[in-house]
């Protein structure tokens, strides 16, 4: 798993840091997302997926290695229902 965050679109809500503080933090300057690691260990993958789903502006994307291929694929994550 590789995480990518669009800092320019981040609102600084902090949901990612709340759900997965081992992987996400917030900038002291503007509160936007800071990745502590782009490739978290496998035991944090589900927690990261939950954090990504909670992002109100959906600025975090996950790229997971295909199990039988070397290429990365983007995994869509559904936003929570209002």
Automatic annotation (TrEMBL):
Molecular-function annotations in GO: 3 iron, 4 sulfur cluster binding; electron transfer activity; iron ion binding
Keywords from the UniProt entry: 3Fe-4S, Electron transport, Iron, Iron-sulfur, Metal-binding, Transport
Superkingdom, natural source: Bacteria
Keyword ATP-binding tagged: no
Family matches, as InterPro entries: 3Fe4S_ferredoxin, Fe-S_cluster_ET
SUPFAM superfamilies, A to Z: 4Fe-4S ferredoxins
PANTHER family: FERREDOXIN
Protein name in the entry: Ferredoxin
Organism: Actinomadura luteofluorescens
Source species taxonomy: Bacteria, Bacillati, Actinomycetota, Actinomycetes, Streptosporangiales
